[in-house]
Design brief:
By secondary structure, the protein is α/β, with parallel strands linked by helices. The chain contains 10 helices and 8 strands. Helices cover 41% and strands 22% of the residues. It starts with a helix and ends with a helix. The N terminus is likely disordered.
Length: 230
Amino acid sequence: MGGTPKTALPPQDRAASLLEQVKKCEEESEIIREALTEYELIVDSAEQVRERPKDYNQQKVFYSGKKKNHTFKNQFIVLPKGEDIVDVVVGKPGPKSDINICRERLAKFDDKQRLSGDKAYVGEEQIRTPHKKPKNGELTPQQKKDNKLFSSNRIFVEHVIRLVKIFKIAGERFRLNPSKYSEGILTICGLVRLRTGALVLQVIKASESPETIEVVSAHTFGAKLTLIAS
């Protein structure tokens, strides 16, 4: 990825996810939110180690017992098979629970929207989770089979997260100013969408010369709307 995609991308927040890309067009946004209910979206989160905050209170806020370090937490909601990043949250404190981060975002979706999540999302009505092993008991063979299929369908969100982490700024300890974190990760999400073909940049040139007039961003979800309508 060179300098050209970065300069051609829309503002970071608008390029980072499908919902943010269409946010300014209320009619299109409403159509897409309704169309998304035809799919069971996949949600997952990932933590990234950051430099220890200098302020003691901030140290407590960002210290993750799970990672034994100070971390940022990012949450991704993607289409089945990881075809696009539908919504992304970046820079939350590592200790914040996955389910609470997700609940804060559900207002952006239709009430009928279905999602699938791992055991961290147990307790939210809109999110389907794997069978939980009963206390002092075992899962049935069918439940184990269901969980295996469930995991195979969810693996695509991990593929998306892996694509984000290919960029060193997202995959290694974040050493820059924390105020730059959201900007950096959102830009990477836009580049990932561009790489996978979910985000499309249309170059408009002058009719009588090769001069570029502007670069317009589009998305490939429009093709799915046609299929749903038919």
